[in-house]
Amino acid sequence: MGVKVVESKECDKSVCKFFVDASSWIKSLSLNDIPFQALEHFKIMFIDYVGSIAAALSSTQGVKLAKNHLGLREDKPYGYLKLLPALSVLLDFDSTLLFYGHIAHGVLGSLIAMSMRNEVTGRDLVEAGVAASEISARVAASLVLSDVRGQMMSFLHALSSVITLSKLSDSSEDEILCSMGNALSYTIRPTREGFASLAKLLVASTSTLHGLLSYELCKNLGGRPRGDVFDSFMKSWSHIIIHAPLGNLSRKWHITTLSVKKYPACSYAQTAIDAAHHVYSLLVKSDLHKIEEIILEENILTHRMDAIHSRFIRGLQTEFTVLQFYTPYLIAYTLAHGSFDHKAYDEASINKASIWDIASKIKLYHNRKFTRELLKEPLPFGLALNEIGRLKASILLLKLLGIEGIELLKSIWLGEQHDIEKLEFEELKKIMPIALEIKIRGADKIRIERKTVEGFHGTGIDSKKYIALNKLGYLSRLVGDDDVETVTDIILKLDKAGYDEVKLITITIHKALQQAMIMVHT
User: Fold this and answer.
1) Contact present, 313 and 326 (Cβ < 8 Å)
2) In Å, how far are 48, 268, 337, 359, 360 from 292, measured between CA atoms?
3) Alpha-carbon distances of 89 from 140, 186, 297, 513, rounded to whole Å
4) What is the pLDDT of residues 167-190, one digit of tens each?
5) How far apart are CA 420 and CA 466, in angstroms?
6) What is the signed CA dihedral for 182, 184, 186, 192, rounded to 10 degrees?
7) Contact of 127 with 29, CB cutoff 8 Å
8) How far apart are alpha carbons 125 and 43 in whole angstroms?
9) Is the peptide bond before 380 cis (omega within 30 degrees of 0)?
10) What is the pLDDT of residue 142?
């Protein structure tokens, strides 16, 4: 039976048509349709996801989280679908797509949980994972300039999850369409401040479970698609919908815009940590006590993140989830230790007065030159200029940036328009420009500028793979080196992996979780 859509009077046909086309595309997508670059990026996403979970389980908070899941069994996926997304986002070490947000929680969380009890091949995982990534990325891209951009797009985890599960179970087009509609018709909308708390774990976990329930309802009822659900969703969640990303299926592969994080912290802060790491290599230990002032010049996005989270800074009493987004602490920790890892969020680190002493010397400034560099990028502003025009884009800029946006209007009017169909994703970069200047008593000041770090989009597939594989090293702390090597080899050849090899991946993840639980009692 073909897909039928019930259109409301207000239904935007282009939005409804996208989801109808998407359900057909998901159903028919085959490994043979997926180009090499997209396939390799999905494998990196898989490695990165497992590495993020392992890193979380190396932290005190991750061990505490695992303590409440002592009854996990491989034949019961619900517990894993609750725990894995929460662990993957715990340290904010998760991957992102270029300007589209985080989607791996729903994709990989569902794939791993379902692989625990079902016989699936690596090919099954690739087809389901890529399908979910591509559709979710397009929906996120269409709303990237809205008030639900970035981390607040919690519904993406539900959408990713239903697509993954539908594809894995070989659902009909009707069931796929119904599942997507269900996932988007009852959305969870956290406040921006929610990401300064454990709410971000709840969002990732709850949304992924919501996707599972949406899928099961439609699968059990045979699918009852409602096209107006999708239009209602888009209209209620955004004043401006950029329609251009809602298409190009099999012509543009958004998963190739994958960025992996070098440090367990918000993506906006990666360049700041990298700059601090470079500064540390230029200092001698005694210099730390001679620091008089640290000036951090930020682009508008990093500056806004710091402004939001500075309200929740309580010194030694600050929650670790806040510090993941607060660059003064991240820079201070890096300068004090010469590195940055999960230990930055241990209570022992947060309680160190010496780190807070360095942080207190950091002054934050908005560098408009850096922001103008962001506004010149093809995504998202170049795309918005091309589709909605300069006037609407200017109004949107003022809405997003407030009074500061007035001084940046010229950048919009002089900006270049970009057609998404003509963009070469491989040539795009995700830049987060910052400058770090340190004044040291009795010495010349040090100034370092950074735009990108290894692992971010634009640094090349080999760099991303290298960073992700290093992250997987956290798994060695929980299981044997041989186990880690086996899992790595299987994922790198995932498209050729059979049932037994996929099972080895899930057994190793299960073993890591069990080991973390043992650590609770030691």
Assistant:
1) yes
2) 38, 25, 18, 11, 10
3) 18, 22, 27, 16
4) 999 999 999 999 999 898 877 666
5) 29
6) 160
7) yes
8) 10
9) yes
10) 87
Mention every residue, 6+ apart, whose C-beta is less than 8 A from residue 95.
Answer: 44, 45, 48, 49, 52, 102, 104, 258, 259, 260, 261
Separation CA 508–CA 449 (nearest Å): 41
Q: Cα–Cα distance between 519 and 60 in angstroms, integer? A: 10
CA-wise closest residue to 106 among 158, 176, 168, 41: 158
Report which DSSP code applies to 101. B
Give the pLDDT of residue 227: 58
CB atoms within 10 A of CB 236: 11
Would the pLDDT of 4 be above 80?
Answer: no
**Closest alpha carbon to 4 in 227, 321, 193, 153:** 227
∠ Cα 279 281 282 (to 5°): 65
The runs of H, that is alpha helices, within 29-154 are: 36-57, 60-67, 77-90, 104-115, 122-142
CB 257, CB 248: distance < 8 Å: no
> Are 492 and 468 a contacting pair, CB within 8 Å?
no
List the one residue out of 329, 332, 351 whose CA is nearest residue 291.
332
Token pair, residue 50, equals 């497992």
Which of 83, 182, 103, 194 minimizes the C-alpha distance to 144? Answer: 103
What span, in angstroms and rounded, lies between the C-alpha atoms of 378 and 362? 32
Q: Which ranges in 324-460 belong to alpha helices (H)?
A: 327-337, 347-350, 353-359, 368-375, 383-401, 409-413
